[in-house]
Amino acid sequence: MFEIVIILLYKLRKDMNNLAQRYSIKHEIAYYECDINQQMTLPSLIQVMIKASEEQSDRLNRGSSYVNQLNLGWVITNYEIEVKRLPLLGEKIIFSTLATAYNKYFCYRDFFIEDEAGNCLVTVSSVFVLMDLSTRKIKAVDEEIIAPYESEKIKKIKRFNKMQPLSNPKTSPFKVRFYDIDSNKHVNNAIYFNWLLDVLGYEFLSTHTIKRAPPRRWRDVRAVAYAAWSNLMTSENRCSRYRSPRRLISTNWMMHYVISTIFSQLGN
């Protein structure tokens, strides 16, 4: 009996810790965050997601100012996105985030986007790393930085599903513009999705909506931007490293990214 009580107390404490890790904000979708179909765009969604994670860090006294004084910055290296439907213009949406786990070099954070009724619209799994702002290299996770999040410490590296090889992808060059660079002096994550989706064109984007974005790590190279045209459509008929800005512009670098993104036909 005593052992059962101990086990129950341990589970209760673990559940309370998990609840303490979750942070939520409410956000009303504005017109400038939407496309012509009055759906929230993926870049806008990601920006609000990151805002939620930054607010949580600030409340835990682990915000940008704390991390920057250690000459470090957070960089997102991977996303895996599942979309049931995108938020609509005027909807009041709850953005929640949870710092789930970390190992020597990688921190794992999940995001949940829900409507006011509690229906899950979008789920996102992401990977963060700490970058030395001087060397632009990845640094080992500092225990003192991560402690307030109460994330689980793990040894293994989480593996995401691999993207499928692209067949005859459409290519389009993109220059990195000054205002694509954020305060960490690298291309903001939301900008990548702008580049990716722009390649698909007006007609396609106005009649389709994103369902899934398989994981892919971004990297800077002197190349062109690749976007997948193959395996984009489903039969469903419903909505279901880093260099300084001056260096990027003066050398006319282009961003290279490869991602297969699956869309579904928009309903009437």
Distance between the termini: 60 Å
| Helical proportion, percent range | 25-40%
CATH class of the largest domain: Alpha Beta
Q: What sort of overall outline do the alpha carbons produce when their principal axes are compared?
A: globular
The radius of gyration computed from the alpha-carbon positions, rounded to a whole number of angstroms, is 20 Å
CATH superfamily of the largest domain: Hotdog Thioesterase
| pLDDT averaged over residues | 76
| Biggest beta sheet summary | 9 strands, mixed
Strand content: 25-35%
Structure class: alpha+beta
Number of H- or I-type helical stretches = 7
Count of separate structural domains = 2
H and E order:
HEHHEEEEEHEEHHEEEHEE
Could you name the CATH topology of the largest domain?
Thiol Ester Dehydrase, Chain A
Q: How many strands?
A: 13
In the CATH hierarchy, the architecture of the largest domain is Roll
Which residues form runs of ≥5 with pLDDT under 50? 5-20, 218-262
How would you describe this structure to a colleague?
- This protein is an alpha+beta fold.
- The protein has 2 domains: 1-158, Hotdog Thioesterase (Thiol Ester Dehydrase, Chain A); 161-268, Thiol Ester Dehydrase, Chain A (Roll).
- Helices cover 26% and strands 28% of the residues.
- It has helices at 2-21, 42-59, 64-68, 143-146, 189-198, 202-207, 245-250; strands spanning 23-28, 72-83, 92-102, 107-114, 120-132, 138-139, 152-153, 170-172, 208-213, 219-221, 225-227, 254-256, 262-265.
- The strands form 3 sheets. Strands 1, 2, 3, 4, 5, 6, 7, 9 and 13 form a 9-stranded mixed sheet that branches. A two-stranded antiparallel ribbon has the order 8-11.
- The chain is globular, with a radius of gyration of 20 Å.
